[in-house]
């Protein structure tokens, strides 16, 4: 009986720690940065600003790219990636979301471990990855905070 009670306590503490971790991450994304807006505020801004620029083909490509994400987290991942794609498209002054901006935004928004899947998917679709190699060489930890200036440097 004592062992069962200890296991039950360990399970509850573990589940609360996991839940607390994800709640804390969400809390950190909601904290305002130097410009007065939080990461989530900027995500919403880019989504709203570029919503009219998405076409069916591009939406389908984004759905394909986020398919390996577990269903529980897929909506959050799609939202985060779509906002980064919107940011890239606005930086380039595009009138619509293109396949190139989707790929660039996906690379910037995702950690390095997801790039293997992207390379595989692009190979299946017979899309050349050479124009994006400079982005693949960066890891998310290298450009997460200041990715705009590093992105501009690689384009120069």
Give an overview of the whole structure:
17% of the residues are buried. The protein has 2 domains: 1-30; 33-155, no CATH class. With 156 residues, it is mostly helical. The protein has 9 helices and no strands.
Class by SSE composition: mainly alpha
Report the sheet with the most strands, covering strand number, pairing sense and barrel closure: none
How would you name the oligomeric state of the polypeptide chains in this document? single chain
User: Low-confidence segments, ≥5 residues, pLDDT <50?
Assistant: none
Number of strands: 0
Strand content: under 5%
Task: Give the tally of structural domains.
Answer: 2
Number of helices: 9
Shape: globular
What's the alpha carbon Rg, rounded to whole Å? 19 Å
Helix proportion:
over 70%
> How far apart are the first and last residues' alpha carbons, in Å?
67 Å
**Average pLDDT score:** 83
Order of helices and strands: HHHHHHHHH
Keywords: Membrane, Transmembrane, Transmembrane helix
Transmembrane segments: 6-24
Protein name: DUF2621 domain-containing protein
InterPro entries: YneK
Brief overview:
This protein is mainly α and 156 residues long. It is 71% helix and 0% strand.
